[in-house]
Write a structure and sequence with these properties.
Elements: H1 2-49, E1 63-71, E2 78-86, E3 89-97, E4 102-109, E5 148-152, E6 158-164, E7 182-186, E8 203-208
Antiparallel strand pairs: 1-2, 1-8, 2-3, 3-6, 4-5, 4-7, 7-8
Length: 211
């Protein structure tokens, strides 16, 4: 009789521990589920309130413009410039030949007109925002056409690369669109100070940016 009572007591104790364990596991599962639901709701809320990045209309357009530079002012300076546009950024790569050794200014000018022998038919610097001439990125101001200087080696060869989101190819934005403009290479150096064009001297090569 005593043994029967003992067995019954042990069985009851085991059942009690098992029930408590199940309740604890259920509580843990419920807590984890609640936490996951809260995190998911927070992520959904974040997606709803996040502002999509404002991209220009031409952002997805991939474009290319190739420019042939012809000699001006009896210089013999020639070359080519390639503009490519991808993800709203324009990359310019210019390759020049026939230059005297040293630095020479290179700019974007107003018109894709290189008909005159001195290159002056291309007009002045492209300056759609009405800023003073200066070095690219200068807080005091600079023209959108102020590329800067390129350095020629002893063989008269020079290359320059520029990457910017302040230009576009045929986007229609008058403050960014380089189509219909011209690349001008100068005999002298841009001093980044003299107005309106850096006292860069005669125009020795010109090419219209057209498609």
């Amino acid at each position: 009789m005593k043994r029967s009572i003992l067995y019954i007591s042990i069985l009851a104790l085991c059942l009690s521990v098992s029930c408590k364990s199940d309740k604890k596991e259920d509580a843990t599962e419920n807590t984890e589920t609640t936490t996951t639901e809260v995190e998911t709701k927070a992520e959904d809320k974040s997606r709803e309130t996040a502002n999509p990045k404002d991209e220009p209309a031409y952002y997805a357009d991939k474009k290319k413009a190739t420019v042939t530079l012809d000699p001006k002012s009896n210089s013999g300076v020639s070359g080519s410039v390639v503009f490519t546009q991808d993800q709203g950024v324009v990359t310019m790569i210019a390759v020049l030949d026939g230059l005297s050794q040293g630095q020479h200014a290179i700019h974007i000018h107003e018109k894709a007109d290189c008909t005159s022998d001195d290159g002056k038919s291309a007009g002045g610097h492209w300056n759609p925002t009405g800023q003073p001439h200066g070095k690219w990125g200068d807080e005091a101001g600079y023209h959108k056409g102020d590329i800067g200087n390129v350095t020629a080696d002893a063989n008269g060869h020079a290359t320059i690369t520029m990457i910017t989101d302040q230009w576009c190819i045929g986007c229609g934005d008058e403050t960014k669109d380089i189509l219909g403009k011209a690349i001008i290479v100068h005999q002298g150096v841009d001093d980044f100070k003299s107005q309106p064009s850096g006292a860069a001297g005669s125009r020795v090569s010109c090419g219209g940016i057209i498609q």
